[in-house]
Structures are given as structure tokens and as C-alpha cells.
Amino acid sequence: MKSILRFLGRVARFYVEGFQSMTWGRTLWILILVKLFVIFVILRIFFFQPALSGMDEAEKQEAVGRALSQNP
User: Fold this and answer.
1) Which end of the chain is more exposed for a tag (fewer CB within 10 A), N or C?
2) What is the mean pLDDT of the chain?
3) From CA 45, how far away is CA 33, in angstroms rounded?
């Protein structure tokens, strides 16, 4: 158990030191985070609307049952 904690500490220290010494890496990480925001927030709002929104519980159960019972 002690060796696992020591290993995890070394891994954490490796990443902390790596992030502290970045120059271009910080800019790239900001770009990555902006892209993830666009993918998961903006696209979800405009293109991937929830299929069961506006239905009550009985309608949701019926829709899911129909979707599961359809043959591919």
C-alpha cells in the first residue's frame, strides 16, 4: 500500500512540475478547453436536443418501450 501511495505521489509531482514549466502548453490547454466547451455545451444546446423533453412520465415510458422493441 505504501509503494502505491509513493508511486501516485511521484506521478502527481511529475504532472505538477510539468504544468508549472509550460510555455506554449498553457496556450494549447486553453485552446483544448475552449474546444471542449464548444463541443459539449454549444453543440448540445443547438443540435442535440433531448428526445424526451416535453413528455410526461407515461409518454416517456411508452417512447422508450417502442424504441427498445423495434427490430434493427
Assistant:
1) C
2) 87
3) 18
The CA distances from residue 33 to 30, 38, 57, in Å, are: 5, 9, 36
Check: pTM over 0.70? Answer yes or no.
no
How far apart (Å, rounded) are the C-alpha atoms in residues 24 and 53?
43
DSSP one-letter code for 70: S
| Cβ-proximal residues to 18 (8 Å cutoff; 6+ apart), any chain | 25
| Contact assessment for residue 25 and residue 36, using Cβ atoms and an 8 Å cutoff | no
**Cα(66)–Cα(54) distance, integer angstroms:** 17
Q: Which stretches of 1-72 are DSSP H helices?
A: 2-20, 24-37, 43-46, 57-69
